[in-house]
Amino acid sequence: MTSTTTRDRRIGVSPAPEPADSYRAARARSAQLERELRESPERHRVLTGDRPTGSLHLGHYLGTLTNRVRLQNLGVPIFIVIADYQVITDRDGTGPLRERVRGLVADYLSVGLDAERTVIFPHSAVPALNQLLVPFLSLVSAAELQRNPTVKAEAAAAGRAISGLLLTYPVHQAADILCCGGTIVPVGSDQLPHLEVTRLIARRFTERYGPVFDEPAALLADTPTVLGTDGTKMSKSRGNAIDLSATEDETAAAIRAARTDGERRITFEPDRRPEVANLLTIAAVLTGDCPASLAERVGDGGSARLKHLVTAAVNESLRPVRTRRRELIADPGYLDAVLVDGIATMTGIAGQTLDRVRHAMGMRYLA
Q1: Model's pTM, two decimal places?
Q2: For every residue of the chain, which 3-state class applies, written as one string?
Q3: 101 band by pLDDT with thresholds 50, 70 and 90
Q4: Which CATH superfamily is domain 248-329 in?
């Protein structure tokens, strides 16, 4: 275990709460937030986003995209950051970045996000946002960042030494969230450690310089984790995903290749038959049916009938999304215009935030 250094003590490092306690507190706060959002959605701001490292997939659609649309339609101001700088946290180049960024914008708009109500922007294009990194880095210790479980997991997955950018990834995320006055961040439980760094930075800034930032809270999603075709978590990097941009034939082929088991009769038993349960869950979420009822419907039809049912559910649900996405991709000028508008809006907001930070720190030199 890493010992607390003198610098750690000066910054104000305190023992981290037990994970179970943190999760229970986050779950309770998340339930309260849902009630507040229904009553006064305009009181909050939501910041969420993605790295442009590849196509968004069915897991994103079920886990985050539909929830963003729900929050937007409740009247909550939504900010979506395309975290383009973070592409190079664990790789040597950016890849076809412009194409991927446009693809993300098309994904967002095709599922129902509205550029008139939701701000979409790449954080590399907002200088004031990135300037917040310098004071924020002074508020956390290297030991705290090294202990962050998400950073450690991402470093292990990358199979290389931790870069300075990867180590400070949670601090950059804090700049994304706090620069727009984010009060809510929709996350899964595995992202709570990242968000805790943001809360810590907001709290320590207040203690040192005065109140500028609220501590954002996690809005925990109730949607299940979707497994990929190989039985592990669906991921862009693992090549086991069903992309939103896939054709119906490609979707059918991917689902036919999905791992199941050798039992003929289909039952919904998540612990004993996780791959079968995963397919049933996907179909259930998309159709609104119960997984156990779908299993009864398939019965002795085996995995072939199950996969046919899932393929039909996915393709039918995504058909309008895919149609709209093709239309958007065919108009790159419009996608770029959405980004330009988002950058302009975010530049104004981030500039005001940076001005307040400079004022609090005694660094406002220009009238």
Answers
A1: 0.91
A2: CCCCCHHHHHHCCCCCCCHHHHHHHHHHHHHHHHHHHHHCHHHCCEEEEECCCCCCEHHHHHHHHHHHHHHHHHCCCEEEEECCHHHHHCCCCCCCHHHHHHHHHHHHHHHCCCCCCEEEEEHHHCHHHHHCHHHHHCCCCHHHHHHCHHHHHHHHHHCCCCCHHHHCHHHHHHHHHHHCCCCEEEECHHHHHHHHHHHHHHHHHHHHHCCCCCCCEEEECCCCCCECCCCCECCCCCCCCCECCCCHHHHHHHHHCCCCCCCCCCCCCCCCCHHHHHHHHHHHHHHCCCHHHHHHHHHHHHHHHHHHHHHHHHHHHHHHHHHHHHHHHCCHHHHHHHHHHHHHHHHHHHHHHHHHHHHHHCCCCCC
A3: very high
A4: Tyrosyl-Transfer RNA Synthetase (1.10.240.10)
